[in-house]
């Protein structure tokens, strides 16, 4: 069955098509009487706006793009969930794609979204906003949150890593180790920097025990197994994200050791999975879903302002969440 058109709505409301268009698109001015008649007619006729035609009138697509380095795993799922919740509340559509950490692929995805979105949310841990071919308002997620970048939302990874290491030390760990993210990842670099700075305070002059991971459970498992093979086996491990921490806990158990009695573990992000590992995982809470919501709200502000430089950036300070994986005694600081 053919749906109603804007012309049908105008006829039903006894107004011009131009007046009906102004009401349905929210542009221009009409009297309250005309607005009420058009909306009532649209409801009676079950009129559904044609978004393609509407975008020609408003110069808006009512769609935003979200570009992530990957779409696998709970972290990215939570980011998408947060953005989607905020977008739906504003009647916005969402296009999601992954760049797989490749700058050329990210550029290609952004180009493919050109003309289809009003703005872009981009998490590109290997690039800054200036490296991307963007012609619409852009909000970057992650990267270097020094507080100076406009229209960006980031995490204080360095401070979070320092908190994690100090927590392990306060719980009696002295042979500290770190399972890092990929070397080229900006967030991973800051978490490593925080680990290195604080570990040297706990164990001055000691060699840094570090294994690089890839932010997956398998990567964490491999890295932890390698650390356990060392003569100076660590008794406390700061893992750069919760996914790898879950793999690390499994590797410790497979080696016949106990968490946290033999090796204490702390992760980063506080994804939903962290509460359900065995034992439950201590971590640094970022509020991933909320981060996605905040990023979308920031993008809407940039779109409405028409100038991303007018929107101030946000830096999130991770909060320590203590669970059983790091409790070696009574100190839980």
UniProtKB/TrEMBL annotation:
Residues in HTH lacI-type domain copies: 4-58
GO molecular function: DNA binding
SUPFAM superfamilies xrefs: lambda repressor-like DNA-binding domains, Periplasmic binding protein-like I
Protein name: LacI family DNA-binding transcriptional regulator
Xref: Gene3D superfamilies: 3.40.50.2300, lambda repressor-like DNA-binding domains
Keywords on record: DNA-binding, Repressor, Transcription, Transcription regulation
Origin: domain of life: Bacteria
SMART domains noted in UniProt: HTH_LACI
InterPro entries, sorted: HTH_LacI, LacI/GalR-like_sensor, Lambda_DNA-bd_dom_sf, Peripla_BP_I
Family matches, as CDD domains: HTH_LacI, PBP1_LacI_sugar_binding-like
């Amino acid at each position: 069955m053919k749906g109603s058109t804007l012309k049908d709505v105008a006829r039903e409301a006894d107004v011009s098509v131009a007046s009906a268009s102004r009401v349905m698109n929210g542009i221009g001015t009409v009297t309250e009487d005309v607005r009420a008649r058009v909306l009532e007619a649209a409801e009676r006729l079950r009129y559904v706006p044609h978004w393609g035609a509407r975008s020609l009138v408003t110069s808006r697509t009512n769609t935003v793009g979200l570009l992530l380095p990957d779409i696998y795993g709970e972290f990215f799922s939570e980011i998408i969930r947060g953005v989607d919740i905020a977008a739906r509340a504003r009647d916005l559509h969402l296009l999601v794609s992954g760049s797989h950490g490749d700058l050329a692929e990210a550029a290609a995805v952004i180009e493919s979204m050109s003309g289809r979105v009003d703005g872009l949310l981009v998490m590109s841990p290997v690039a800054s906003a200036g490296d991307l071919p963007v012609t619409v308002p852009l909000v970057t997620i992650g990267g270097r949150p020094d507080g100076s970048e406009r229209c960006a939302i980031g995490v204080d990874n360095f401070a979070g890593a320092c908190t994690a290491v100090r927590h392990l030390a306060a719980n009696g760990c002295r042979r500290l180790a770190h399972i890092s993210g990929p070397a080229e990842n900006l967030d991973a670099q800051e978490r490593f920097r925080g680990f290195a700075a604080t570990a040297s305070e706990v164990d001055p002059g000691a060699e840094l025990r570090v294994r690089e991971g890839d932010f997956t459970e398998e990567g964490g498992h491999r890295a932890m197994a390698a650390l356990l093979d060392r003569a100076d086996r660590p008794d406390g491990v700061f893992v750069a994200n919760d996914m790898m921490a879950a793999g690390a806990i499994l590797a410790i158990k497979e080696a016949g050791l106990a968490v946290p009695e033999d090796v204490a573990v702390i992760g980063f992000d506080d994804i939903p999975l962290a509460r359900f590992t065995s034992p439950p995982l201590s971590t640094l809470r970022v509020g991933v879903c909320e981060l996605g919501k905040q990023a979308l709200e920031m993008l809407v502000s940039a779109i409405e302002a028409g100038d991303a430089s007018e929107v101030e950036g946000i830096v999130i300070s991770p909060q320590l969440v203590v669970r059983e994986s790091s409790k070696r005694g009574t100190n839980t600081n």
